[in-house]
Amino acid sequence: MGNRVYIFDTTLRDGEQSPGASLTIDEKLIVARQLERLGVDVIEAGFPISSEGDFKAVNMIAKEIKDSIVCGLSRALPKDIDVCWEAVKEAENPRIHTFIATSNIHMQKKLQKKPDEVIEKAVKAVKRAKRYCSDVEFSLEDATRTDYDFMCRVVRETIRAGATVINIPDTVGYAIPKEFANRIKYLFDNVAELDEVILSVHCHDDLGNAVSNSLIAVEMGARQVECCVNGIGERAGNAALEEVVMNLVTRKDYFGLEVGINTKEIYRTSRMVSELTGIEVQRNKAIVGKNAFAHESGIHQHGVISSKETYEIMKPEDIGWEGENLVIGKHSGRHAIKLILEKEGYRVSKEQLDMITKHVKALADKQKTIEKVDLLAIANDVIGRLSENQARMKLKEFNVVSGSGVTPTASVRLQIGDEEKIGSGIGVGPVDALSNAILSIIGSDITLEEYNLKSVTGGANALAKVTVKVRDREGNVVSATGVDEDIMKASASAIIEGLNKIFSYGKG
Ligand SMILES: [Zn+2]
Predict the structure, then answer these.
(1) Are residues 314 and 254 in the same domain?
(2) Model confidence, pTM
(3) Residues with beta carbon < 5 A to ion ligand 1?
(4) Which of 110, 103, 135 is nearest to 6 (CA)?
(5) Which domain holds residue 301?
(6) Is 219 domain-assigned?
């Protein structure tokens, strides 16, 4: 095996399965472009058969991304594989990723199939995928709870059927590093065919071992790691891309391995994913948390000032962290804004740039300078919005009365299609009253799941960013943001955007 470790990013597939992380097609495309800039080897763009929207997103990403392999996920079913190929076939480098569960518990309880039937299905799936595409990845779902010898049999048979990458997922986040190392070693010792393909791992963080398990597998010979930016993903998440990469880079003396990642794009990618998914990065998160490079204790500060290497094993610049600088004044034009956005990995349409510029100018009229974070918050807000014709609902006006000794009361006027509707509500506070007024028009099928208010830059006249999560009766959850100097306006636009998103959910 070579000394290159391939980074397989599944932020847009497994990461997007985090509760409330759903992204619009435009948002997915922006993240995919940034992942390409970051230099990931494979982008798993989605699960094409799962919805029309997912199919479209995978297809658009496949058409546009040139430097990374674009991969779609499919169960080991003929229809899944056919649809997956339709979605990825226009990619410069397409990959079909198919999977079936191989642990006893999954085979008995979920698939209700005997081991031999499972192998037969897996082999058939790989052969079908191979008819379309030379690059085929096969995953043994719940591999870490699979019988060792059965696992070896499945791997051997699927390689013979044409799989070029074999993935060993710790689907439920159950493995312990040493145990996982033994499993990977057992595979290499018993399946000679593995020498001709790439062995991959995909670890979940339920016990907090995702990164450690990934790294020990690499030590044992795995050469592809599946991971997500900021470690997002189902339940406790997936192995964090930035942690896996910076371990391999910072401790190259130990691992002696290469990655193709441009680490200077890590911070930018992290921030983009956090903004667009609405999933914040904890302050003390390794590599990309706000505190990761803050040396506050007196002893450390002294050490860092006299010689950086005393306490710093990585430099903030290594991951592209530049600090937050003032960039935009009242007179900055469209062009300057476009340049800054491009540097940050955003390519925006003319219509979007107009909206962003308008919003920036309006804000600049009220406060002297605008920081880069303000601009990015505005840009993310504009990009995340559904286009005019996708948005069913528009806010025409609202009014909120609150104060001490007054019951907070709100009224709103919405345009829904061609109709105008008026609603009112009271609440424990002004935001509650406002959201009740909006929901009084919509009815009880929709609930406001989460409301989060943050000032973008700090200070009394800062931009307010409101993130909401909205849930429908079927349990679908979407997140939406609203950015404005006025908290009420930001709240109203976040709620309306959330409603528009939930109504178009799954409809592409
Ligand atoms: Zn997973």
Answers:
(1) no
(2) 0.83
(3) 14
(4) 135
(5) 293-323
(6) yes
